[in-house]
Amino acid sequence: MFNRKRKERKKENAQKEPEIISCSLEDMRKAVNRFADNSDQRLSLRSIINQDNTIDAEFLAPYLGGIPDRPFYMSKETYDIFEEEGKAHHIDRAQIACDQYFLETGQFPFISGDKAGKISYFKLKNYLIEEPPFDLYLDPKDRMVTHRKPPEEQ
Predict the structure, then answer these.
(1) Hey, which of 27, 48, 131, 134 would disulfide with 59, CB 3.0 to 4.6 Å?
(2) Are residues 21 and 61 in the same domain?
């Protein structure tokens, strides 16, 4: 009598587990946007980002139709999504360093003469523990760090 109900519960739990799916970066971005649109305004988007910057796909399974077969990474500071493991971590550290630099100096940590807004790691040497292995750019309007080079102005 008791075993029968226990077996039924196990079957229900097994059916509720989301399937493993193949997912593109664009699919993940769309799922995060839908999650943000549908979630309570008091819930921070940071709640789906694990300590190691991986995205907790359990939250996004209803929007993706399953759990991705590989991890995706999200910056806690800029909410950019990546397939590469280290980028989100480096962008988070650079964003914090740029914010501290701006608060202390009132200036942006740009490379002198660079019109694209490329960040000078030399100016941030006292704020960064390690230098990112790729170029980063800072938008002066919103003061957000990005790995995307802005388009050339004409």
Answers:
(1) 48
(2) yes
